[in-house]
Amino acid sequence: MRVLFALLIATPLSAGELSDVILAPGALSGLDAPLTYDRKLGDESETLLLRPGPRLTLILDGREVGAFAPDSAHPAVMFFLESTVRHMAEATGGSPFYIRNRIRDALAQAPLDAPVMPFSGDPNRAQMGQFAGLTLTFQTEGAEVLQLSADTAAGTGGYHESLTLVEGE
């Protein structure tokens, strides 16, 4: 998974309002207290902890999943986006590189606090099944990322993932 994080952040984005906030390099460089997120994937719930230090350490249910330089993009956002890419690639048999690039392009063009539908005009939509209608939403307050969600419109069999900042921890 660490290699996938590196691939997602390796290529610079043309910045749009949304990507300026959620993928801003160094946005957490002054972090001095841990950030706790509640992660929901379908019916499952987990805790994602971002611990400050010389490196920002991302911990999922007590297991370290990555360490990041303080001047990197927000590790919890990167984890969330990469999780969505991985699940979509597994479900559709599609290329994670293609999926990742379409999501990156959509984020780079998206206005702040607007839903992002990265595959709405994609020529390969027919092969994406339920993920053709994937909607990403990001709730921010200033430079702080409060909530992220990825949803498909398909009812009970649909894909639903969210990451919510837990207040007061």
Characteristic key phrases:
169 residues; 28% helix; alpha+beta
Describe the structure in your own words.
This protein is of the alpha+beta class. The chain has helices spanning 2-10, 17-22, 75-92, 96-109; strands at 35-41, 44-51, 56-60, 63-68, 135-141, 144-151, 160-165. It has one domain (2-165). A seven-stranded antiparallel sheet has the order 4-3-2-1-7-6-5. A hairpin with a 2-residue loop joins strand 3 and strand 4. The longest helix is centred in the middle third of the chain and has 18 residues, at 75-92. The radius of gyration is 15 Å and the shape is globular. Mean pLDDT is 87; it is low at 1-14.
Topology summary:
Elements: H1 2-10, H2 17-22, E1 35-41, E2 44-51, E3 56-60, E4 63-68, H3 75-92, H4 96-109, E5 135-141, E6 144-151, E7 160-165
Antiparallel strand pairs: 1-2, 1-7, 2-3, 3-4, 5-6, 6-7
Give a summary of the structure in a few sentences.
The protein has 169 residues and is α+β, with helices and mostly antiparallel strands.
Q: Please tell me how large the radius of gyration is.
A: 15 Å
Distance between the termini: 26 Å
The biggest beta sheet reads:
7 strands, antiparallel
Category from helices, strands and their pairing: alpha+beta
Mean pLDDT: 87
Strand order of the largest sheet: 4-3-2-1-7-6-5
The number of strands is 7
The tally of domains stands at 1
